[in-house]
Amino acid sequence: MRRRGFVKACAAGAGCLSVGPQWLLAAEQVTPREYEKVRLLDGRGEPLRAAALETKRNYVFHYPYQATPCFLLDLGEAVEGRNGLRTRDGKTYDWPGGVGPDRSLVAFSAICAHKMAHPTQQVSYIGFRQPGEGANGGKITCCAENSVYDPYTGADVISGPADQPLAAVLLEHDPEDDGLYVTGTLGGEMFQRFFDEFEARLAMEYLDGEADGRIRGETEVVPMTRFSSNIMRC
């Protein structure tokens, strides 16, 4: 290689090295995963209105699959976004915060990031604790292994063995009719692992084999006290 060409090549290589770490960091940013836009319904099959939600009450719905439960919460105050949340494989993402008239509505996957404890009709080891309800009041707590998540900061892990936040479920609010929709997820999804781990049980619960069928059109929201007959406290 001639000297001039060699110098140019070195300069180009140095330039790539100078921007390389930033480029690699940007490549590790998690982007939202879009699923079907689905309307939330109340327990009577009518469109759910944001104003109908009780503050700091734990609600449950299924999304984006028939068998994957999620939490819906009205935290009663504006919830700011949180940047730099990190999945277990080191990827980062920015959580947008609350939505709705008061920016107080948030939603998360109800599958614990440790051993995937989740609400079922028979029992729930994971759920939102009312403020004043013990040391973890105002937090999402999994009594199976004592992982604690903060819904005010994107369900980031406060304590316990979980190694990533609960995956966020993306909400949209329609100010025209006060309706609510879900559109996708953000963060560390665990859906495939969930289906693999609980395949036998889901096959008995979903005899049509549609446990992993996508939710389309609408999905019903119910209070946790109606969803699970036995809610564990810790």
Structural commentary:
The longest helix has 25 residues, at 3-27. The protein is built from 4 helices and 14 strands. It has 2 domains: 1-29; 31-227, Rieske Iron-sulfur Protein (3-layer Sandwich), CATH 2.102.10.10. The strands form 4 sheets. Strands 11-12-1-13 form a 4-stranded mixed β-sheet, with no helix packed on it. The protein has a 4-stranded antiparallel β-sheet with strand order 6-3-2-14. It has helices at 3-27, 191-197, 199-205, 224-227, and strands spanning 33-41, 59-62, 69-74, 82-86, 92-95, 105-109, 126-128, 140-142, 147-150, 156-159, 168-174, 179-186, 218-220, 222-223. Strand 2 (59-62) and strand 3 form a beta hairpin. With 234 residues, the chain is of the alpha+beta class.
Strand content: 25-35%
Helix/strand-derived category reads alpha+beta
- CATH class annotation of the largest domain: Mainly Beta
Mean pLDDT: 90
Ranges where pLDDT stays below 50 over 5 or more residues in a row are: 1-27
Order of strands across the main sheet: 11-12-1-13
Major sheet, described briefly? 4 strands, mixed
Task: Note the quaternary state here.
Answer: single chain
Architecture (CATH level 2) name of the largest domain? 3-layer Sandwich
**Can you count the beta strands?**
14
* CATH topology title of the largest domain: Rieske Iron-sulfur Protein
Radius of gyration: 21 Å
